[in-house]
Amino acid sequence: MGHTSLEKLIRLQRKTSSIRNICILAHVDHGKTTLADCLVASNGIISTRLAGKLRYLDSREDEQIRGITMKSSAISLHYAAGESEYLINLIDSPGHVDFSSEVSTAVRLCDGAIVVVDAVEGVCPQTQAVLRQAWLENIRPVLVINKIDRLIIELKLSPQEAYTHLQKILEQVNAVTGTLFTSKVLEERAVKEVEVQEALSEPSSGELVYDWSAGLEETDDSHLYFSPDQGNVVFASAIDSWGFSIHQFAQIYCQKMGVRSEVLQKTLWGDFYLNAKAKKIMKGAQSKGKKPLFVQLVLDNIWSLYDAVVTRRDKEKVEKIVASLGLTVMARDLRHSDPKVLLSAICSQWLPVSQAVLSMVCEKLPSPSEIGAERVERLMSVGTRRFDSLPEKTQELKQVFLDCTSEETAPVIVFVSKMFAVDSKALPQNRQRPLTQEEITQRRDLARQRHAEKQAASQSAENPESANAGGTPAVTSANTLTVKPTAEEEEKEHFIAFARVYSGVVRRGQRVFVLGPKYDPALSLRTLPDGCSAADPLPSVPHLACCTLEHLYMLMGRELEELEEVPAGNVLGIGGMEEFILKSATISTSPACPPFTPLNFEATPIVRVAIEPKHPSEMPKLVRGMRLLNQADPCAEVLIQETGEHVLVTAGEVHLQRCLDDLRERFAKIGISASKPIIPFRETVIRPPKVDMVNEEMGRQQKVAVIHQAKDEQSKYPEGVHVDSTGLVTLTTPNKMATVGIRAVPLPEEVTRLLEGNSELIRTMEQFSLFAREGKTLEISQKTLEEIQGFKSKLEGLLQGHKWRNAVERIWAFGPRRCGPNILLNSVEGYRRPSVWQCVEREKEKSEAVMLRDFDNSIVSGFQLATLSGPMCEEPLMGVCFSVESWEIKFSSQLTQQDSVEEDSVSQQALEADNNASGRTAQSIILDENLKKSKRKGDTTDCYGPFSGQLIAAMKEACRYAFQAKPQRLMAAMYTCEIMATADVLGRVYGVLSKREGRVLNEEMKEGTDMFIIRAVLPVAESFGFADEMRKRTSGLASPQLVFSHWEVISSDPFWVPTTEEEYLHFGEKADSANQALKYMNAVRKRKGLYVEEKIVEHAEKQRTLSKNK
């Protein structure tokens, strides 16, 4: 197929029904980019011979070196099927788990996906992840089973064995889809059950009958699954340029066999065989030991082709095959020493993979105008808001989405999924274009003129009489000087927004609204006048900006083509948006448009490094470079810590390496030095262990030793701190005016997980409480209230037992940052404060007016500070409950009046309730007089500063001492690690895992292959260099996939010292070699500049001086 002109692609952009927006999704190294190359080659953009070798869409140098895709890139292709023509916007996405955020950005802009699966490896971890992402975004997938040539050449399977193997792969893929479908149906059923229960408030008089059906029987799921007879599966070998669907072979054989193609399409895949005598297609091939039709008519032919071309190199047979297929193969291909060249030449004509894949895409995947109502509602419902709760004008836009029209009246709605950086040389306006004949003539004349001037100048140097000639070189040098700044400008990075138009026509120079992720259409509709546009002068609205669309581009892989307008349904690039969009945003001409729901990222950024320039003077360049990197990468995070360090947070080692290379070479263009990865830890407390370090029960003697140790520690505590044997810490403020009693209790593991998973709900509750304190009301949707109620009931279910009685109602705050996995409990006798569950108990709260005590906020602030940095190594706490047992204040009212200005939680009613008004004023007058006297003497009433500050410090210290009174433990971040390896390297895999503190969860063999899948957990602290070591030790036969999973308590006590005889025998006197927790803790303390208790010299020998050596 010849090269498609840009005019034809622009013309096709206007026909929405013939557009297909698709992305290629797969596990790493399953052949996405090779398949994309074959599709690109079909448009004549690259040579068919280079398809699979060039990797056209991998435009970065490091992508070419590593051989993996690191960023999603788009290209527009033309495909003609008969009379109808199609525009296919293809997005190639990465398969490596570190770059799964790029997959999210690609999936959001598409209506369909090509899922590629390796015929040998089958369904891998990332295959499941991409199928889940496609499911969450409501996009329809089709399947390509790639690398079938490996079944022939590597595994040497017979056609019958290969058929069985392909059936198993289809089952595996369908099992993943079935799981996703089942979970969705069960969720919907649960919602319906709740609604029915609410409707039936009166209990029925008849017998209660339980409905055992899960609702799966009634729902139709036939369209979800991949089956070759439905036409949504292609079998391919992209590297050899062939691929086919059942439909193609049905067309070939329907003429030869005289059977209708519809019948063949249904019977070519499945348990059918050809009865040659009866000349009929019959069922039951497996039971009768017959060859299935698929093997007989399809696979046998492909196997015989490989046998003739690759295995035996039989020239005569090859010539016969070429003649029978009616193909023309060039003589140089027949003579080529590499058989794969000949194979590719034959297959690319007989079964071109591009035709099979693109025809399946056009037939089976929807156009932009076929977007589902459910997907639209999901896109428009931001965060906790439900679609029903959105303003009427916003809900009316749903129809605009569904119509996907390019009419003048339709509002423009565009979603930007990411920003990507390009060199200014790559922009169309800066690209070198071919010169016209007139320009060539003009330049030739100019060159001749310059040459003549140079000659004249050289003559004038020899002949000093001509004085005028000396001026020309000065002019040319001035010209060269003025050119230099433009060259510097050319090196500047430009950002292009990767976007899709959902409605209307986007035009160059158009004024639009840019809606941030937190934009609220209800607020803006109240503020802005009706019928306003982005061109009008408007009042400022939060998270709303107006801008002009400067440049529109068609994305063509490595190149960009400038456009004047882009109609609805197309993928495009928008230039000049870097000032308005950080990572993603919604663009619209209507202020009623809601921001789209945030993207679903599979990988969480966990690997942190501190970055500094090699030359301190280049710090501004580094700051600018990190800002650009943050904008260019959807998953990377850039932050400045309290210590002043510039920290880069990435998803994994490969991602980190790419970000550092980008900083050095593209964004900062300076030498930078990165620290060793900053490994995150958490601190927690546990119940007192019942066994010691050698797994023996703690005897009475040891318990007595522990009590003596506790008494020794009590003497270390400063004045005003008392710790009793039960772990209750009582601490008095320096001015002796307040005393707090705190106890630390470990939270059950399930509760910690629940709190961690519901941080958004906790944040919403905290916001509601803050608004209520200020006398405002925050509108929360019914769905969110139901979720909060469900969260509360789960907490109540998990916090059972005597010590947790009414604990959920007594929750004072969550921390750190008011939404973390730690709890502050109110166990103060006689103190009732407004509940954190105010939003779900509004009626109850109205009837019982409960007021806050003075300095309530100081207690919360102290708790927040304590949970943000623990006493072990200043890392955040996790899974700890601090119970406030007592809180007494004996302060003078002068201090109250002084501090109540600062405290936002103190209420006037509470002050009046606690003290008699008349008595108080008299007391304050006396205090005022005393204060004036003391000020005259030159001293202050309270040398420790404001009372609230003292209380915050006291609360923080009390929490820390209470934490230290319990058995302390470190929590490590854990990766789940999936490794695919053959049996002969299994031992080496286990060796690498055990060396790095890994723990194998399970190991299973993949059916039909000699591959094992090993699932393990590995501490993040031990993961650096793990993938490289694994590849080296196994000679590249095993490669791990690491995904952050959870936090796990390290069982060893970092402060443990041997006490019993057995422990001395087992661990030695110091016992420091085996204590992994102590190593981790000391490493973090050293990094933070905290005190570390260690001996620099342990076994010193006398040093021999030089004088004695003489």
TrEMBL record:
Which positions fall inside the Tr-type G domain?
A: 17-369
Region listing for Disordered, in residue ranges: 445-477
SUPFAM superfamilies referenced in this protein's UniProt entry, alphabetically = EF-G C-terminal domain-like, P-loop containing nucleoside triphosphate hydrolases, Ribosomal protein S5 domain 2-like, Translation proteins
One GO cellular-component annotation of the UniProt record comes to:
cytosol
Among CDD domains, the record links this protein to: aeEF2_snRNP_like_IV (cd01681), eEF2_snRNP_like_C (cd04096), EF2 (cd01885), EF2_II (cd16268), EF2_snRNP_III (cd16261)
- Please list the GO biological process terms of this entry: cytosolic ribosome assembly
Keyword Hydrolase belongs to the record: yes
Does the entry feature the keyword NAD, yes or no? no
What Pfam families does the record point to?
A: EFG_C (PF00679), EFG_III (PF14492), EFL1 (PF25118), GTP_EFTU (PF00009)
Q: Name one GO molecular function term.
A: ribosome binding
Biased composition of type Basic and acidic residues is found at 445-454
InterPro entries listed in its UniProt record: EFG_II (IPR041095), EFG_III/V (IPR035647), EFG_V-like (IPR000640), EFL1 (IPR056752), P-loop_NTPase (IPR027417), Ribosomal_Su5_D2-typ_SF (IPR020568), Ribsml_uS5_D2-typ_fold_subgr (IPR014721), Small_GTP-bd (IPR005225)
Q: List all Polar residues biased stretches.
A: 456-466
Sorted UniProt keywords:
GTP-binding, Hydrolase, Nucleotide-binding, Ribosome biogenesis
Stored NCBIfam families: small_GTP
Name of the molecule in the record: Elongation factor-like 1
